[in-house]
Every structure is written in C-alpha cells, then in structure tokens.
Amino acid sequence: MTVAWTAQGIREDFPILGRTMRSGAPLVYLDSAATSQKPLQVLHAERDFYERHNAAAHRGSHQLAEEATEAFEVARSTIAAFVGAAASQTVFTRSATDSLNMVAHAFAAATMLHARGREQDSRFVLGEGDSIVVTEAEHHANLVPWQELAAKTGAELRWVGVDPDGRIRTEDLASLVDARTKVISCAHVSNVLGGTLDIAAFAAAARAVGALFILDACQSVPHLPVRLPDTGADLAVFSAHKMLGPTGLGVLWGRDEVLAAMPVVDTGGSMISHVTMQESTYLPAPAKFEPGVPSMAQAVGTAAAADYLTSLGMPSVHAHVSALAARAADALAQLPGVRVQAAPDAPPVSAVSFTVDGVHPHDIGQVLDDDGIAVRVGHHCAWPLMRALGVPATVRASFSVYNTESEVDALLVSVERARRFFT
Ligand code: PMP
C-alpha cells in the first residue's frame, strides 16, 4: 500500500504536537488509544459552528435554528457514511461507554416492561436460563454493563477466555453459546492486545441462535476501513474522541429493525411524536434515542474528523498506523526481558502493550515521561484481561496518523534506557 501523505506532512495540522514537555523534551504522543489529538480542521469546524450557526437544533423555525439543524444532520450523514451506514441508523450518545450502557439498559427496560405485560421484542427480554456472552479481553465499558444486566435479569454472564499468551479462545463459542444466548458482545480490536478479533466467528455464533451481536468498534473505526453493516453486527459503538474528533460524542449504530425494536431508555424532549399526561409515543430512530438538545458542535467536529481521515484514505491510514505498531512490537520483542502482550497471530492495529521483566510498568512510564514520551501504563480498564495474561499492568504505546518512525525509535531508546536503569 503506497501512502500518498506522510505523518511528517500532516503534523502541522495538530498544534499540540509542537509542545515541549516539562523535562525540555519534545512531546512524543503515543497514547492515541486513550484519546487521539485533534487537527485544526476539527477545531475550526467546532469554532465555526459556535461563531456562526449556534442555536438549538430541531427547535424553532428561525434561520439560525435551521442552520444548526442542517449542520447537525449533515454531520450525522457524514459520520454515518464514514462507517458505511445510513444516517437513520446512526444515533449520537455521549460516548461509547454511554452507547453500551444504553443498549444494556434497553434490555433491562424490555425485560421489565415485558414482566408488566407490555409487548416487547423477545430478543430484548432476558431471564433466568438466558445468557450473555462476552470475552475476557473486554474493556470494562463492554463488561460491567453486562454484569449489571445479568444481575437485574437473572441471565448468566459467560465469557470466551484468553490464554496467557494473549490468544482469544474463539473456539470456546461452540460450548458457551446455546439456544438461550441472547447477547454476544465483543471488541473489534482489543485496546490492550492490539489485534483484531475474529468477529465473523462471533457474528456467526450469534446468527446461529438468534442472539444480538454487539460490536465495540472503539479501536477499529479510527484506524481501519470499517463498514459496520458488513461486520455482521446488529448494534455497534464507537467514540469520536479516539478518531481525531472532540470529546463528548459517541455513536450507537444499529440495523434498522433492531433500532426499531429496541426500547427507549432516556426520555424527554425532541424524541417524542405525541405526549399526553398519561403516556407518550416516540419518533423513529435515531431521534427516539436522542432526548434533549443534542451535542451539535461535537457532531460537526466529528464530521470534520471523518472528512480528515477520508481525505487521507482509510486504507492508507491503516497501512501507516499498523506499520508503526509492527515496527514497535517487533523491536520491543528483541529487547532482553521485554514481553509484548499480544497474540502471536493477531498483528497490532495501533496499540502495542508490553511488560519488562522485573520492572513495574509505572517505572517504565516515568522514564518515558521524562523523555517526553506519553504512553499509558496500568490495567487499561481491562482487569480480567490483566489476570488472564498474569500481569498487574502493562505499558501501552498506541499510534495514529501523526506518528512517525522516528517516534517509534525514540520509544525504543527510552524503553532500553529504563530497562537498563531498573535491572
Ligand atoms: N471500548 C474500548 C475497546 C475502548 O478502548 C474504550 C476507550 N478506552 C471504550 C470502550 C470506552 O470508550 P469511551 O471512554 O470513549 O466511552
């Protein structure tokens, strides 16, 4: 894959990359899996919305309200197109975490309403004997909501295990999934192990028993060409802030008929079609799931981020980011005592986690920070995965469009300096 743009060429779009850190070292930002940096195009789009078009979308008939509505809905179409989806299937939330909670709460709501004799789509109704299947590699955002749902409904939470070498035991699906499995949910790309899961196997397992397949696409949408309707997922989530967009906006994508069947969780203004003192009826998706004045500037900024990535070309983005990740993973694995925490057959998309024998990840992180290198150290919101890998924490370097080979090399020098210092 030839890359028409260079990371060096686009770095000026990201003013923060010009910073010098406390130690006097220039910033080397290798923490994009936590949150990405934002290009000027995104900052300008948000600012332009506030400076020229700000009003409450979907409310009022004055010109500004019309402009705000237009900007918001055009942004929705742009973001939907970025993941191969229709605007009507693209719901805005506060974050991916919010999207996942909304879905889990929808199952709980359907279960409760069903118990009170209100007709619900049976796919959303859970009870004892039913099961929810996730993996041991999930981010807490795709685990804890399901634990709560199991506790509320009596359904059993089951999980596909992870081997100590980071391999996800996808073959476990055969014994875990049965006719009473209602939900299968997994990450597209692990935020710790860095590789892609065999989501076709998860989708097939769900399809075989009529379960809903929910995809956590937080770590794939920023780096891979992803067409959500082609993933086999019924519902999928991602966050704007990891794809060069602003904080405060998440996406919940769903198949039309799944969103139509899914009960509402949050209610209020904007999402209704009719209200009396006794009861209300709701608009079709996506409005049905978006009560209140929406995050308009954030949507406009996220559309600018999607346009920015599209202009680079997602196949080129993938080629660039995965090449940096592979360069880091291969070189780190050569260092004595360094273990890359990833399955051997799942090359990293962006994130590379590692440990250094006899040295706590926080000590490595401290040395790297002194060298201006921002990585994440800790459990990465994946405690069960840390236990499966047999480590308390890892160091995670993660890459984006603006990172360069020389930054990977700076990481390697710094890790080696830390290793020598502490061992
Ligand atoms: N899932 C995965 C795989 C993630 O990496 C993250 C963010 N670390 C989330 C879910 C949650 O995303 P957010 O914090 O933006 O809600």
Give a summary of the structure in a few sentences.
The chain is of the alpha/beta class. It contains 13 helices and 15 strands.
**Proportion of residues in extended strands:** 15-25%
Biggest sheet statistics: 7 strands, mixed
Percent range of helical residues:
25-40%
Radius of gyration: 22 Å
Overview of the structural elements:
- This protein is of the alpha/beta class and 423 residues long.
- The protein folds into 2 domains: 7-39 and 313-422, Aspartate Aminotransferase, domain 1 (Alpha-Beta Complex), CATH 3.90.1150; 47-310, Type I PLP-dependent aspartate aminotransferase-like (Major domain) (Aspartate Aminotransferase, domain 2, 3-Layer(aba) Sandwich), CATH 3.40.640.10.
- The chain contains 13 helices and 15 strands.
- The protein has a 7-stranded mixed β-sheet with strand order 2-8-7-6-5-3-4, with helices on both faces. It has a 4-stranded antiparallel β-sheet with strand order 11-12-15-14, covered by helices on one side.
- A hairpin with a 4-residue loop joins strand 9 and strand 10 (280-282).
- The structure holds 4'-deoxy-4'-aminopyridoxal-5'-phosphate.
